[in-house]
Design brief:
Layout: H1 7-20, H2 58-70, H3 75-107
Amino acid sequence: MEETDDIAWICALVLDECLKRGSRDNMSAMIVQFVDGTAYAKDPEYLPGPYYSDDGDSKFQEAYMKDAQEAGFSLEQALKLRQENEEKEKAKLQEQQKEQKEQQSNSNK
């Protein structure tokens, strides 16, 4: 760490040193660096799951609302976010299917 902070490079140097010292077997190395990881942290993402209002399971519904509230959403906002996410996924899937059809069409030419 005197020359570089690149852990992968340091690991490669360790393995090179093993070879220089005559290692002829499989080599593995693990270097652990303990640093402040707050720069890598992401804000938690809230992805609401399906909501079942007609099944009569009030404990599920209460837990769903509590989960939404803990993430800073009302039930209505969570349901709207769920719908938006489903629409995005559907559009993404349709685009992928369209691309696959175009690729198949181009490969048949």
